[in-house]
Amino acid sequence: MGEIKYTLIGKTYAYSNDDLDKFDDYEPQKGDWIKNDFDAFKKSIKKLYFRDQKERCAFCRKIVDYDGYYEPLEHILYKDEYPTWMFHPKNLVVSCNPCNGKKGTFDSLVIGYNRIEFPVHANDFITLNPHFEEWGTHLKLKKGLFFIAKTVKGLQTIKAYELTRPDVIHHHSKFKRINKDSLGKKAAKLAYELNPNSATFQHIMASVNAIL
User: Fold this and answer.
1) How many other C-beta atoms can be found within 10 angstroms of the C-beta atom of residue 54?
2) By the 8 A CB rule, do 8 and 52 touch?
3) Distances from the Cα of 71 to the Cαs of 47, 49, 110, 201, in angstroms?
4) Backbone angles phi, psi at 92, to 5 degrees
5) At what angle do helices 199-211 and 180-189 cross, to 10 degrees?
6) 170-200: b or e for each residue (b if 16 or more CB lie within 10 Å)?
7) Alpha-carbon gap, residue 129 to 74, rounded angstroms
8) Helix, strand, or coil here: 168?
9) pLDDT at residue 104 in the model
10) Which pLDDT belongs to residue 3?
11) pLDDT reported for residue 192
């Protein structure tokens, strides 16, 4: 699982007729996301992205609950800061609860974007948006366990979602059936492959120590 092949390019949710009737001339406001009026839309988009994300969180790639039912829809561009794009399909992915919570109000839009039209290019985002690019372009799961950035955007994504956190490493170690002794040895070997003074390495080691 070191090289993860995953993208939502060409798979984005298409509005149903009911969605079109609901969103025609509609201007979302803060707080609208939790209204029951949009439950059907959210259920449909979760089902589609759950499948196309290969039943995993869009960012940390942990296996998520069936149909993503109990998992949140992550707004790549924070919904309260950008309410106009709250229901835009390319602003939404299924994430696990920790990734959704860690991201918080982090602003993923490049500085200077006009904010009039929804951004439609990968370079308009400072973190990964899988609707426009491959996950593996920016990130790698080293030894199937540890998130490593391949690009500056990858590093920003790791920071925004805290992909070096303990629950992520623990999940992937269980999935690969790696025991604690092997986990410790694999983490120790990272010092020969990464800068041991780097923030990424330090965060990984702190997480591994917490698990052990």
Assistant:
1) 11
2) yes
3) 11, 12, 27, 29
4) -125, 140
5) 170
6) bbbbeeeebeeeebbebbeebeeebeeeeeb
7) 11
8) helix
9) 87
10) 62
11) 84
Phi and psi, residue 148, nearest 5°: -125, 135
Q: State the CB neighbour count (10 A cutoff) for residue 207.
A: 20
Q: Of 102, 94, 79, 87, nearest to 31 (Cα)?
A: 79
Q: Taking the CA of residue 161 as centre, how many other CA atoms within 13 Å lie in the half-sphere pointing to its CB? A: 32
CB count in 10 Å sphere of residue 47: 15
3-state SS record for 47-68: HHHHHHCCCECCCCCCECCHHH
User: Is the CB of residue 125 less than 8 Å from the CB of residue 151?
Assistant: no
CA distance 138 to 150: 5
The two tokens of residue 156 are 């920003």
Neighbours of 76 (CB within 10 A): 28
Mark the ranges of the chain whose per-residue pLDDT is less than 50: 1-2
Cα–Cα distance measured from residue 160 to residue 57, given in angstroms and rounded to the nearest whole number: 14
Phi/psi for 14 (5° steps) reads -105, 130
pLDDT for position 134? 94
Q: What is the pTM assigned to this prediction?
A: 0.92
Beta carbons of 158 and 200 less than 8 angstroms apart: yes
